[in-house]
Amino acid sequence: MAIAPPPSPSRRDPVVHDLPSTSLPTPPAPTTGQEPVPSTTGTAVLRCSGLRKRFGERQAVDGVGFSIAPGETYGLLGPNGAGKTTTISIVCGILRRDEGEVVVAGRPMDPGATALKAEIGYVPQDLAIYPDLSARENLSFFGRLYGLSGATLRTRVDEVLQVVDLTDRAKDRTATYSGGMKRRLNIAIGLLHQPSLLVLDEPTVGVDPQSRNAILTSVEALSAAGMGILYTTHYMEEAERLCDRVGIMDEGKIIAEGRRRELVALIGELDRVRLVASGDLAAAAAAARAIPGVREASNRDGEIDLLVEEARSLLPRLLETVTGDGVTIRSVEVIEPDLESVFLHLTGKALRD
Predict the structure, then answer these.
(1) pLDDT digits (tens, 9 = 90+) for 236-289
(2) Cβ-contact 318, 294 below 8 angstroms
(3) N or C: which end of the chain has fewer CB within 10 A?
């Protein structure tokens, strides 16, 4: 497993717990949430179930289960203290679980499974690189720890430098790197040995927008190439962009899991449409309410506000109806429900709490 060492001294079908069952537009069938949700894109590179870990009186992880297929990015979202990092440590074989099962690439994982850990590339929250070495020297050092050497090692170093877009700075000491470049190097270290599963624990914390976008683009490319990815983040927009499925974790449990649209369906959120317009807006709103799929329509201060099902498919008919009543549309805004609203609804907390 690609775990960067401590720094040298010098330097995202849904599953819901305790909520009413909801009819969802897209199966697979629901599970209890303590068992892994069946992967839909191939044989799972990771499958875990019933994970539990207690520290003294605190139950840090309580019955967690999920799976990840090749080419799938699974987002694990939760506020600080939810149990995400403990779960990751168990999955990677760093921390011994009290109960449950972890299967990586078809084989059971535990802290003593040294050979199996080579299937995992782990990129921790904390930077762990040697500042007095260049990026190439850092990668060569870690590559030798992984058992790589000679032409194979040189080829892999070149390949991962290209993946994280650091080829042009490969010979520079990493002490001169920005925070974002250091994080990209950390990811490159985790990729050197070509793992089946890449675990990224908040890889964009504290980076500049350009580096952040470079990291997200790299993750997208790795997933498209068939790598399974377990991704934790405090940025909901990253989960929206990257994750095929998301597990929402709170107080040691996964309280909901599914694709974005499935999770949104759990709380019955509708799309919001705002039309800035002029004319007889009251009559236009009344006409809009008669359209199937429009739940609410009201007008005020030069606007028509609507709650609708599937706004993007309904919008052409909606605009035709409104303008047919002599209304002039000046602007259209469609606000789709997102993971943030789901997260707040289920946990009562913001993701960054």
Answers:
(1) 889 989 999 999 999 999 999 999 888 887 766 788 899 999 999 999 999 999
(2) yes
(3) C
Beta partners for residue 305, in sequence order: 274, 298
Tell me the residue length of the chain. Answer: 353
**Most confident by average pLDDT, 161-170, 206-215, 334-343:** 161-170
CA distance 39 to 43: 7
* Helix ranges, 209-297 (H): 209-224, 236-242, 260-266, 281-289
How many CB atoms sit inside 10 A of residue 235's CB? 17
3-class SS of residue 229: strand
- Strands (E) located in the chain: 2-3, 15-16, 46-55, 58-68, 73-77, 99-104, 107-108, 120-123, 197-201, 228-232, 245-250, 253-258, 271-278, 294-300, 303-308, 328-335
Report d(CA 8, CA 66) in Å as an integer. 35
pLDDT for 350 equals: 62
- Three-state DSSP at 334 gives strand
Q: What's the confidence (pLDDT) of residue 329?
A: 92
The CATH classification number of 270-336 equals 3.30.70.100
Query: Average pLDDT for residues 178-200, to the nearest whole number?
Result: 93
Report pLDDT digits (tens) over 132-184: 999 999 999 999 999 999 999 999 999 999 999 999 999 999 999 998 899 99
Q: Closest Cα partner for 286 from 315, 331, 325, 319?
A: 325
- Inter-residue contact 70 to 42 (CB < 8 Å): yes
Output phi, psi for 135, to 5 deg: -60, -45
- The pair of structure tokens assigned to 301 is 């201060």
CA separation for the pair 49, 47 (Å, rounded): 7
Give, in words, the CATH class of 2-265.
Answer: alpha beta
* Torsion from C-alpha of 27, 83, 93, 104, nearest 10 degrees: 10
CA distance 16 to 143: 42
Domain spans of the chain? 2-265, 270-336
The pTM for the full model equals 0.73
